C-alpha cells in the first residue's frame, strides 16, 4: 500500500496546536520559519514514502536477525538509513553547537511522525538515538559531548537505553549491573540488560549504549544508580571507533510485532573488558534517566500516532476500493464501495478522529518541550502533566485505530498480506515499553497532580475552560477537575485504582480542547471539511463516551481488595 | 501454562443462567441430570487439560501446513482428535437417532467452551462439524441423514461451511459457484471458495463440505442460492469413503493467528469431476445456511469466551507469581507480587468480570436454542434477538480480555514465549468471521428489533426490568429501550450508524442482568466471593461505562455523510 505523508495535517497541527509561529518568533527557534518547516515536512515525506515505507513489510516478514556476527538488518535498511543520515534528518532538533539544526523538538516530532508512519520499527532506531543525545546534552561532560554528540546528531552512530534487567522490569531500582572504578576515571561495566531496542545492528559503525549500573557501596533502590556511556567500540585517540568493548548480543526476542527492531539481550563485560564512562554525577543516574525517558515517552506516544496514521491510510484506501453489497435503504441494488456503508464510515471516521486527536495531544506536548527549553516554567509544568497522557493515551489510540483497521478490511485484515495485521501487532508493544500505561497513570495521580501544589493541573483545567465552548467537553472538564481534586488527597490505593480511567478522561478532555480549536479554524477546502467532520465526531461521540468512565474514576479500591489475590484463580 | 477447566463457573452458569434444571425436567432433555452434567464437565475438562491444552502452542508455532498431499496438522493433533472422537465428545448435542446423546445445546456449548479455552484453533474443527450436523438434521433427506449424520455425530468425519468467494465476502448473494444437474439427481459442482476453516486436514478419513452454489437459471442474489453436500471422498455402496471427489486445496492463508486452523482456498471441480447432492429444496440455500450459521454465530461468540478464559488464566498465574516493586503507600518497601498493585488488580478484575459476562451471555443464548428446539416461540424470538449480541459482544470481550492479558504480562506479554500474545492474535479473527460484528449490529437493528412487531425486543427489556435491582443497570435498560424505539422507525442510514454502539449497550444491559442474578445467589466460598466481586465490579464500572455510548447510539448518520468519501483520504 502506498504511503502518503500527512503533510497538510502536520502543518495544520504545528500552526494551530503547537503554535509554531510563537516559537519562530523567539531567538532560539528563529530558524523555524514557514519555509523551513514546509521544506522539512516535504523532504522527510519524500524519504519516508520513497525509501522507508517500501521496507515496512520486509521489516516485518524478514525482520532483524541474530547471527554470530551480531544483528543483521534486512536488505535495504542500511541504505535507507544511510540516506536518512546523509539527508540530515537526524540533526533537526539537535543544538547547533553539535552539528544540529537547532530546530524545535516539535519539528523533530513531525519528522519522526512521518518516518514512523512509513515504518514504525525502523524509526525506533533514530528515536532511541534522540534519547541518548538528550542525556548527553544535559548531563555529559564537555569531552563526552565533543566526542560523541556530533556523531549521534547526524545519526552516523546510534544510541540505546539500557535500563531493564530480568528481575528489574518496571522497577528500575532493582537493577544489579555493576560499575567498578578502574582508577583512571573509567569504569568496568558488568551485567545483563534485556529489551534493548536496536542494541545491535549493522547500519552504523558504532553504537553508544547508555547503561544504568550500580557503583560500589551504592545504596539500594533508585538512589544507588548511575548512568554510564558504553560504546560498542572504544574510541581511538582520533575519535574513531577502535577496539571491541566487550558488549555481546546474547539473543534477540521473538516478538509479536515490530520485527524490524531487534530487541536484544546484551551482556556487558563477559570478559571483564567492558569500559564505560560516568555521565553526570555518580548516583545521579535516575535523574539523567528521566531526562532521557521523558522525551522518550513522548516519542512512544508518537508511535501511537504513527501506527494510527499508517493503519488509517490502509483502511481508507481499502474502503475506497473494495466493492461489496448494495447500500441498505437504497433503491439501487448495485454493490457499492464499502466506504458507503454507514458502519464502515463510522469506523473510518473514528480512525480519522482518533488519529488526529492523538497527533494533537503528542504535538502539543512537544511544543511544551520547546517552551520549557527556553525556561518557561509554566510550560515545564504543563509538559510534566501531559507527558503521561501523551504516552498512554497516544498509544491506546494507536492500538484502537489499528484494530479498527483490521475490521475495515474484514477477512483480508486477518491475512498478513494486506499489512493491516502488521500495524496491529506492531502497535501492541507501545502501551508497554517506556513505562507501561499503568505506570503512566500512576505517574499522573502520584506525582503530576500534585505538581506545583496542584497548580499545574489547575492551570490545564483553566486553559481548557477558557477556550472550550462545547457543552459536553465542558462537562467532561468539570468531571476531571472534581476527580483530580478528590484524588489529590485520596489514599494510595484509591488513587491508583482510579488512575487509568482518570488518565483517559483527562486525555480526552485535552484532545477535545485541541480538536475543537482546530475545528474553529478549519477552512472549506477538502482538508478543512474532513477536519471539521472529524472534530464534530470527536465532540459528539468520543467526548461523551469518556464520561462513561466517571464511575470507574470515582470508585474506591475497595472492590479490588475485597478478595484475597488467590481468589482470582478460583 | 497449565490450563484448568472452569468447571465450577460453568456449572454455576448452567444452573443460574441457563437454568439447566428446567431443561432436565422436560422429556426431551431428561438425560441432562445433575450427575450427567457434572460428568460431562469433568470428563471434557480432563481431555482439554491433558491433551488439547499442551498442543495449543504447537498449533501456533508449527501450525497446519499445506503440502502436495493436502493439509497436514502438527504432531499430536491427530491423536488428540481421535481421543475426542472416541470419548464421544462430538455426540453430546446430536439427536439420539443419529448416535448422539441428545443433550442440550447448552451442554455442548460448555464442552466446546472447555476444549476451545484449551486450544481455540483446534476446537474450531468440531465447532464446524456441529454446523454441518445442524444443517443436515434440519434440511437433509432421510438418506443423507442416514449416510452422513452418524459419522459426523461422532466427529469421525468433519464438516465445513463453504460460503465465501473472493468477490463475495459479506455479500453472500454475489457468489458464483455453480451446480449443474447430472440427470441422476446428483449435481456437478464448480467454483472456488475461500476462508474455508479446516477445509482440509489429516485427522479424519472424510470431510463433508456444505457448499452454496447457483443452479442453472437461478435468480441473482441470495434467492438464487442452493446448498449442496460435497464430500471430499464419495461414498461407496457400503457407505465408506471411496473415490476422490475433485475438491482441491489450492492454498492456505498466512494468518495473524489461529494457526492450528488451516484456512483453505478450495477449488471444486477443476477436472469436472466434483459431485454434490442438494440439501433441502433447490433455491432454499439461504434458509439452510441460516440454520447452519445461527448456531455457528453463537459458537463464534463462544470463542470470545474461550480466548478470554485462557488469557485470564494466564494473566492471573503470572500476576500471582511475578514479583515487582513495593506496594505504593505501604511502609513496607519489599517488592510484592504484581497482583498486589491496584492497577494490575483492576485489569485482572476486569478480565474476570468480562469473561464471566461473555460466558453468561453466550450460555444464555444457548439455553434459548434448547427451548426453541422444543417449540417455545418466545425462546425462539429471544434467541434471534440475542444471537447478534452473543456473537459480536462475546468476541469484542474476547479481544479486550486478551489485550489486557498482554498488558498484565508487561514486556513478557509481547514476547511470544509466554502465550499471552497468541490469545491476542487468535482472538482477532472472531469479530470478523461468521458475519462481521458490524453485520451483527446491522442484523440487530435491521431485522431483530422489528421481530414480532418489536415484541421480542420489548420482552427482553421487560424481563430485565422485572429482575434487575441495580439503579445504573436500570438506567442503562431505560436508555436501551428509548434507543430501540427510536431506531425502529429511523431511516436505514441512521439505524446503521447507531447500530454498533447500541449493540454494545444492549449487550451490557443483558450481561448486567445475568451477572446481577448470579451475584444474588453466589455463596460464601472462594468461588462465590470471586463471583460477587466480579459482579459488583461489572455493575459499578462496566455498566456505567456503556452509558457513555448513549451519545453515539442516539446520533444520526449526518456527521458520517457530511463529506464525500474521497475526503477520508484528504
UniProtKB/TrEMBL annotation, chains A, B:
One of its GO terms (molecular function) is oxidoreductase activity, acting on the CH-CH group of donors. Residues 64-156 form the Acyl-CoA dehydrogenase/oxidase N-terminal domain. Keywords: FAD, Flavoprotein, Oxidoreductase. Its cofactor is FAD. Residues 161-269 form the Acyl-CoA oxidase/dehydrogenase middle domain. Residues 470-563 form the Acetyl-CoA dehydrogenase-like C-terminal domain. Coiled coil: none annotated. Transmembrane segments: none annotated. Residues 285-444 form the Acyl-CoA dehydrogenase/oxidase C-terminal domain. Pfam families: Acyl-CoA_dh_1, Acyl-CoA_dh_C, Acyl-CoA_dh_M, Acyl-CoA_dh_N. Belongs to the acyl-CoA dehydrogenase family. This is Alkylation response protein AidB-like acyl-CoA dehydrogenase. It comes from Sphingomonas aurantiaca.
